[in-house]
């Protein structure tokens, strides 16, 4: 397997390869976000469709099937993922310029897939369908797909990719063989992150909970996050306006995610003197956590979960963040209840 040196995926790849001799009709590839599960699923789909040497360890990359797959137009491959419909259905408005795509896989996409499954394969071999993230299917969509999972056409393999398999319908899970993708070890992930130009890859990997692709994505926002975390938060600022200023330009949902990790580390530092995410700010966290009451931290942590539910579309992002940071600064108030 050669997936840009994603060596941490090799154990899961070997599990997939071991199933090729007796290929199931559906596989559920699951693990935490940012590990490369979709990369793995697409690579295996390419492997199944490859018309080169079947004994090879990877897709050959040179046969017509591999070239079509690389170009995104293999006739026996389909990818289901959230997106707007090409043609709006009755009662639906077309998305305006700049409007975000749907965050769900729609039932219409599954119906289009069923049309694809109703005809024979174009190349006379396997047909592969990747669904990612599978938890983006609502109940109606999942039930529509379930019909194909229960009675799949011959030679069809479904590869469901999920970061939250518990959110899938039990009937969907029960029809899939599971492939777990484990968190990446430092020996594999740190050299890869370094090759991608990520500064301080050890700290980046810890912050991303050993998920290298998440660490790479987070590195793109690191300047803003460091202004908040390594700056105002680690310095112990008690000014909600200063904290809000430190993350100006960042999406509120990202800020809440950063603050959730910071709060988890505050709780760990308070309880055990350790941290999970902010390895470079461990000393500051222990100092800040010393006078905090655990019950206050727990209440604030729960309030952040509520904030995360509305952080995608707050009415006024600035006021929203100021309110969150005001509650954060009150953690150190002696009379705060």
What does the model show?
The radius of gyration is 23 Å and the shape is elongated. The chain has 337 residues and is an alpha/beta fold. Helix content is 47%, strand content 7%. Helix 8 crosses helix 9 and helix 10 runs antiparallel to helix 11. It folds into two domains: 174 residues, P-loop containing nucleotide triphosphate hydrolases (Rossmann fold); 112 residues, Zinc Finger, Delta Prime, domain 3 (Up-down Bundle). A five-stranded parallel β-sheet has the order 2-3-4-1-5, with helices on both faces.
List keywords for this structure.
47% helix, Rossmann fold, 7% strand, five-stranded parallel sheet, alpha/beta, 15 helices, 5 strands, Zinc Finger, Delta Prime, domain 3, 337 residues
Terminal CA distance reads 56 Å
Q: Which blocks of ≥5 consecutive residues have pLDDT under 50?
A: 84-101
Output the CATH class name of the largest domain.
Alpha Beta
The helix content, as a percent range, equals 40-55%
Gist?
The protein has helices spanning 10-18, 37-49, 64-71, 107-117, 139-150, 170-173, 186-195, 201-207, 212-219, 222-233, 240-246, 252-272, 282-289, 294-310, 317-329; strands at 26-30, 77-80, 127-131, 156-162, 177-180. It has 337 residues and is of the alpha/beta class. It folds into 2 domains: 7-180, P-loop containing nucleotide triphosphate hydrolases (Rossmann fold), CATH 3.40.50; 221-332, Up-down Bundle (Zinc Finger, Delta Prime, domain 3).
């Amino acid at each position: 397997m050669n997936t840009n040196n994603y060596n941490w995926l090799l154990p899961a790849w070997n599990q997939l390869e071991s199933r090729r001799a007796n290929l199931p009709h559906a596989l559920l590839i699951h693990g935490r976000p940012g590990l490369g599960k979709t990369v793995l699923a697409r690579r295996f789909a390419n492997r199944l469709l490859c018309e080169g040497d079947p004994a090879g360890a990877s897709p050959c990359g040179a046969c017509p099937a591999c070239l079509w797959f690389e170009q995104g137009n293999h006739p026996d491959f389909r990818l289901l993922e959230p997106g707007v419909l090409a043609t709006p259905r009755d009662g639906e408005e077309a998305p305006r310029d700049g409007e975000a795509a749907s965050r769900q896989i729609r039932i219409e996409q599954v119906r289009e897939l069923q049309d694809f499954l109703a005809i024979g394969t174009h190349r006379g071999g396997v047909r592969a369908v990747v669904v990612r993230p599978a938890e983006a299917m609502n109940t109606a969509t999942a039930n529509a797909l379930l019909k194909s999972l229960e009675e799949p056409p011959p030679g069809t393999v479904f590869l469901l990719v999920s970061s939250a398999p518990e959110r899938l319908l039990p009937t969907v899970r029960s029809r899939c063989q599971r492939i777990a993708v484990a968190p990446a070890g430092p020996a594999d992930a740190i050299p890869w992150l370094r090759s991608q130009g990520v500064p301080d890859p050890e700290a980046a990997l810890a912050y991303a909970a050993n998920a290298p692709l998440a660490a790479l994505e987070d590195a793109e926002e690191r300047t803003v996050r460091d202004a908040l975390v390594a700056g105002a938060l680690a310095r112990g600022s008690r000014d909600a306006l200063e904290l809000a200023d430190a993350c100006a330009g960042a999406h509120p949902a990202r800020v809440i995610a950063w603050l959730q990790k910071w709060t988890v580390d505050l709780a760990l530092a308070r309880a055990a003197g350790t941290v999970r995410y902010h390895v470079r700010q461990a000393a500051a966290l222990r100092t800040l956590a010393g006078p905090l009451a655990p019950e206050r931290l727990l209440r604030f942590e729960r309030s952040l979960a509520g904030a995360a539910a509305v952080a995608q579309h707050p009415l006024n992002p600035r006021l929203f963040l100021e309110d969150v940071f005001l509650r954060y600064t009150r953690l150190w108030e002696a009379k705060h209840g």
